[in-house]
Structure formats: C-alpha cells, structure tokens
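Why does residue order matter? Because the sequence determines the fold. Keep that principle in mind as you read this record.
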Amino acid sequence: MSTGTSQSPTDPRRALGATLRRWAAGEAAGIGVVRVLDRHGFGSVESGQLLAGTPGGEVHGLLYLGALDDTAHPLATEAAAGAATVREAHVAESSAVAAGLACAGGATLVGHPLPAGPAAALGEALEAARPAALLSTVDGASALVLTGPDLMTEHGSLGDGAVGEAATAAARQLLRRGAIATEQVDAAGTAVLVDVWVPVPSVLVVGEGALGAALHAQAGLLGWSARTVTTVADAQAAVSAFTDADVLVLLDHAPEFDSILIEGVAHGRGFLGALGSRRTQSARRERLAAAGVGEGGFAAIHGPVGLDLGARTPAETAVSIVAQVIALRAGRSASALAESAGRIGG
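Structure:
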C-alpha cells in the first residue's frame, strides 16, 4: 500500500528547459546563457543559477531572484549574438533585500553562446527533471552539455580532449553528491566552470507513524516530494529504482524489512537511513552481516539515521534526518558554521 504522497512545487528550471528546447528548435537566431562564475555576499543562495537569452532581447530565467538583471540581461543578449564575456555585477543592500536576498553582494558573471544542439539537450533534460550538466571554459569560449542518469551523453565540446575528459569526470563526481552544484574545476590545467543539476530529492518513508507524517511535512517545506509505503514488496520496488537524489527512511524494525536495506546497498543509489535504538541497530546489523552485507555496505546505511541535535519530538527528529541528507548531498561535515572556514551557504 502506498499513502500520503506530497508533490513538490513546480521547479522553475523545468520552464526554462522548455524555453531552451523551443528556441533550439528554430525559434531563435541564437542562444546565449549567463552563469555565475564567482560571488560574494547575498547570503544563502542556490547553486546552478542560469539565465538564457536571444539576440532579440528575449530572456528567460533568474539570477539571484532578479537582483542582477541590469547586468545579466544585456549579457545574455550579447552572448546569444555570439560574444563570450566575463562581467562584474554589484548589488547594493537595499536592492538585494528588495529582491528577497539576505544582504548586498557581488558576482562575476560569464555569458557565452550555447549552440542549438547542446541547448536542446540541456532544455530537454531540465524540462523532464533529469540530471544535466553545463560545462564551459571560464572565458566562455567553448561549452559542453552532459545528460543522462550518469551524465554519460555528451553534446558539444570543450575543444581539447584531455580538458573535456577531466571536466566530465569532475561533473560526474559532483553528480554523485546528489545535489545541485556550481564549481570551478582544474581540468588538465584549464579552469572550467561546471554547473550540475539533479532532480529534487524524493523521500520514501517505509512504515507509518507520527515521524512519517513529520517527514512528509519537512519534505514539503524543502520543496521535496515524499511518499509512504508499508509493504516489503512496495519498498523493494521503489528502492530498486532509486536515483542518487532519493532518500529511504526505514521506520519499521521488523526483520523482514532488512531486505530493503540489502536491496539499497546492492543498488548503490540514494541515501539509506534506518530508524531505531542502538539495540535495534545492533540486532539489525547482525542479521545483515549474516545475509552477506560487508563493511562497505554498512558504510552506506545511516543508522540511527539523523544528526545528533538532541531531537525529542517527531518534528525535531524529522529535522535531524533531512539535515543529515542535506549535509551529505553538499559534502559538508554538519558541524557548526562558526567552526567552519568554508563559504556560508554552500
């Protein structure tokens, strides 16, 4: 039985993808994209910011809630006309706050042409909420789009074969995090800007109870989807189809549900979490070991699931679980921000 499915809100990238696909089909004389090469300030903002435009001035997408429009829109038009340009943009406190950002900031933007073939491939992937990546040299001189579940299909080229090979390997490694990412990487001595887009996480709750309801509520707040199943067969079928973005939270302690974790370890995709006391976890581990699960498999199972936040209520426990998922997807340690030297907000 499957119950309690909550749908995530519409992803604006899907609308952008549809526009890219339409433009690439011949409705635009050229396509240009604008991306964030570097930034400082603005508070917490999502990676994978993308804006696209045509030579005629039509623009679709947003960079930092529109705060960079004055710089980004002309840059998109220039890029669509064939110019690859790097430009600085600065936003004052009042303008940033008015746009919905936390504070003032600045960004280095790169605008570059995107040929019809790669643009169509990127558009189709974004519209269908499938994994995709856009790679370019930091000067925007060449661009490559990767699509497919493992980003194995290439559209376009970065010119140099060694650069392309190293950059695609870096993009595929970022995909394994299961989170949208924007990073500059050193690809065979060449700086490459990599944007990776992955599907919105989906939480599979196995078992019923107050925590399951709290996980549904928490997923909704994050824009994730969630569903609950209560049978081993339904859970196994779902886990066997997991992507890197999927999350299992096993609430049921019955031994027959061990098979779901075994399936998850064998499949090698997604986040595998299991609730239970340390005694429950120990008994489960003994059963899994007897079934042939090795140390590598146990490393993939998060049990007891969640971060040590001192959670006492179902709602607080749900927060601790999704916090662990977020930290792992971002490759962070989940320590206090005050103890970290890295960028705040990812």
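Residues 12-197 form one domain.
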